[in-house]
Structure formats: structure tokens, C-alpha cells
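Cross-posting from the chemistry board since nobody answered there.

I work mostly on the small-molecule side, so proteins are not my area. We synthesized S-adenosylmethionine and want a rough idea of how it might sit in this target. Sequence and SMILES are below. Is it possible to get a predicted 3D structure of the two together?
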Amino acid sequence: MDSRSWLLLQPDPPEHDLPADLRARDRFGGRDCGWVAQMRPFVRHFSQPGQCVFDPFCGFGTTLLAAALEGRSGCGIEIDAARAELARERLRRHGVDAPIAVGSLPQTAIPRAIDLCLTNVPYFGCRWPSDEAGPDEGQLYLENDYAAYLHRLRDIFHTVRRALPEGGFCIAMVENLTIQDRMLPLAWDLAGVLRGLFVAREERLLCYQRDKQALPAGATRSNRSHEYALIFQKTRETPCIASTRAELRAMAEAGFAFEVFGSFASWLSRDDDTAPRPPGDADLLLPDDQGRFDALLHWLHARNYELTLWGEAVLPPLPLERLRAHWYLRAQRRDRLGRLVRLDLCLDAHA
Ligand SMILES: C[S@@+](CC[C@H](N)C(=O)[O-])C[C@H]1O[C@@H](n2cnc3c(N)ncnc32)[C@H](O)[C@@H]1O
């Protein structure tokens, strides 16, 4: 993959296409099947030969076929049992052995140790022919509520994050949608979800040379002529010590009581923030007091901090019970030089 921010994709050669007989057996007619050519540059660039590529929404096994063609192993999870079987059959015809589990994260175990997550997410608002309620439970195509849909994606990618090694990449392909003439910025919302879990690395635009199709009014509309590849990495981003110190000073001057503890406490006396292994965050102990806690959250919010409990965005007022249940609240912001300040707020149980 070169350094351009966009890739102009050519359709797959017939031997990589989803075979017509398998397509015909799919409930959707294989409508949401991606291209092998779309995945191969990402497999090459973000994993090493012999490593394992995982797709949590593996559909017809396109990602796993791309991984095999690039000399990687693969594994996937697909909630639709019939589709998982089609993917297995497709891979068998290519002589590829890549396990596919039927189910969904976080409940279903990832079949083997993984090095890269590469996927096309199931889009919100797509039709899905639901038979009985049972077998389709967990099917994201059937989720009617957009906030709940994003929440479930967050839970799934949270599990992916845990399974990836330090430094591993998580790449999600997604587009913004128009549903009934309303734009739904799914790509940007998913980027927000992933930002709570990973460090954003880059975006690529995947462009397809396709004629705009005539689409029925009122449907989920997409001409699929471009799509984003959102590239995130599981890595420890080092906050800026100088910027963090300045923020702690401002917090104290605003009258908030806190105690700095853990690894950051030992750095406070230093001027140099280039020494090895700087702390990943500043841990702060707060008084166990609802009013003072909410006042601090309002102050942080006004200074443009993002406030999250285990990756989920929160706003003040926030009951202390919720903080206790999660152990810490993360407050994070960047200054105009892009420098990161990350504060983890905990309650002082002994205060
Ligand atoms: C865009 S398709 C993936 C197609 C795949 N990239 C390919 O080209 O072969 C998304 C898939 O996610 C599956 N899916 C939906 N909800 C899921 C969930 N909660 N867990 C796992 N798979 C799910 C759908 O059944 C669908 O097959």
C-alpha cells in the first residue's frame, strides 16, 4: 500500500468472486459481500506473513480469503449460521483452512490467537429477512435503535481490543449512510467509538468505479462509490507530562482537592518528559463527595475534556455509584499541538 490516502479499487478477478451457486444460496443473494481486492493491501501492510487476521463480522469469508492469498492465517465470527457455512465452503474450494465460529462477540470465543482485526461492519438500517426471532438474535442488521447499535459495536470492538497484542491494528471499513433522506454519519460515529478504545492512526478512502444505481425512495441509500477504512492501533499513547502538569496546576487553582498517586506522582518532580517509560496517565484520588465530583466534571467538560467510563462517553452529573462500579473515570483532551492529557479519576475510599 502506498502513501496515498485513497485507493481506487478494481473488481475482483472471477476466481476470487463469491461463486454464483453460493451467492444463490444466501438469504440476501450475497448483496453485502465485499471484495478480496479491498482487503489485500491492508492485510499486507498491517500484518506479517504467518500472522493471523481476524474478522468479527466475517460474512462470506472475503477477509479470510484475502489473508490466505497473502500468506496469513485467518479466523472469523459470523452470526448467521447459514452464511458461516457458505464461507466455509468458499474457503474449502480455495484450499483455505480458517476457523469460523457462529455467534457474536463478546459471548463467542475468538477461534485462535489474532494479530490483526480487519472487517466490514454490518450497516445500520439494512434489511434482513428475519424468520423466527431466535436464530437472528444479536444480528446487527436487525437492530432498530441507532444508539443501541453503536453501543453493541463498542462492546464487540472492546473484546477485539482485549484479544489484540500490544501494537496490533484494528481496521474497520464503513461508509456514511443516507436513510430516508437523512444522513447518518455512521463512519464518523464508528470512528468515535473506536477512538474510545484505540489510538487513531489514519483513514483511507476506498473508491469504487461504479455507476450510480437507481435506488428506491425511502430505502437505505448507498451508491457504494466510496468507503472509509478507519485504521486504529492498540497502543499506549504517551501523554505529555508538561501539559498534564499545567492542567493539574489549573485544577488546583480552581479550588479542586485531589491527590496525585501512582507512576505519575513520581514524575511530577521532573522537568524532562523524554526519559524512557513515561506514565500512561495521571491517576488522581478525589474526595468521596458527590457535589465536589460533579463540580469537577463540569469544570473538565467546560475545558473540552472527553469523559468516559470504560470507553463509554458520560456527562455530569454522574452518580458516584457509577464511578465506583467502573473504578475510574477517564478525562482526556488534546491541546492545539495535539499533545495528550489523560487523567484517571478515582475515589479516595479512606477520605
Ligand atoms: C458486511 S457483511 C460482511 C461481509 C464480509 N466482509 C464478506 O465480504 O464476506 C456483515 C456481516 O456481519 C454479520 N453480523 C451481523 N451482526 C453480527 C454480530 N453481532 N456478530 C457477528 N456477525 C454479525 C452479518 O450477518 C453479515 O454477514
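Reply from a structural biologist on the board:
Welcome over. Reading the output above for you: The mean pLDDT is 90. The first strand starts at residue 6 and ends at 9. Happy to explain the C-alpha cell format if needed.
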